[in-house]
# Entry
Amino acid sequence: MPRAEETTTGADARVRRRVTVEGIVQGVGFRPHVHRLARDLGLVGCARNVAGGLEVEIEGPEAAVDEFVRRVEADAPPIAVIESLELEELEPVGERPPAGDERFEIIASREDAKGEIYVSPDVAICADCRREMFDATDRRHRHPFINCTNCGPRFTIIKGVPYDRPRTSMADFAMCEDCRREYADIDDRRYHAQPVACPHCGPTLSFVAGERTERGEAALLAARELLRAGRIVAVKGLGGFHLACDADDDEAVRRLRQRKHREARPLAVMAFDLESARSFAHVSGDAATLMHGPEAPIVLCERREEARLAESVAPDTDSYGVMLPYTPLHLLLLEGLLVRALVMTSGNLTDEPLATDNDEAVARLGEIADGLLLHDRDIFIGCDDSVIRPTARGPV
# Structure
């Protein structure tokens, strides 16, 4: 007697396919994306990270599987980049899949696969995380390391692929019960977000200035206190350290240049928001779009001569390199600081590598900065800020 699926034809015929997707599909919410698609279409199967991207096995009525394949690419997460998508026909398991394949599952990564390795860049804080961070009722209120599937550290915290939490600097932070519940909830924005954490289980801020040390919110307040006093603070960001001071304080900027041995080249600045940036620079619509994008680069903008920043910020050019806060820590540091902008230049002596490690920063930047705002999430890959100039032919 033939099985039911063997006599079914057309769109209702049961098929199973392997879908291999290559590109930036790890750490960008792609496994949650295919899981939700499978659930919504009533399909079974599994997905796992492989060295070159993502491998999915999907089974169900042929019309539904075709729709799944179409939407895998058409509805991909906003920060994903698909380089290729390949299909392979497999033998269907049947109407009653064996134990372990009765639904769609995200399974252990395949570590023996060969292929190109694509890693997502770090992504600027998204609107949802920003809203939660400033919501006094949210459990991540003022958490300097808030992130989700759509934003946060990626490239700079990875020490191996495929991209899973044990191969990142978040391996040192065990998820609390609440974070683990979010991580396992297919309908949650933090479903399989590898850097997920909260104030109870995530990284912690600290501040060092001579014999003085502070932790948590007190560390943030101490850094602000120095900046308001015209001093220099080394700030640990996503890809390394910045050296920061008040961009309107010419004495502070000149002191920073002298200590950093950077005589004339322009210094990048970070404004809290577009309104602040537009008080000293002509920020076009294209420039604003770039600043608010997931890359959050430094954007070159013509300065306002009548309301320029300290002369020492960019003495030999009529442009400023302007960026907006792209991490929760940057937002918290600038919030309430009451300055138009901070100089945010790379944390190193001129021609030296960018400082990324806490002990290294204390040793190398201690003679430049009057204090250091640190945290205990390691940076495995140093990464400087990108610089973009908007032009009539597009960004350069």
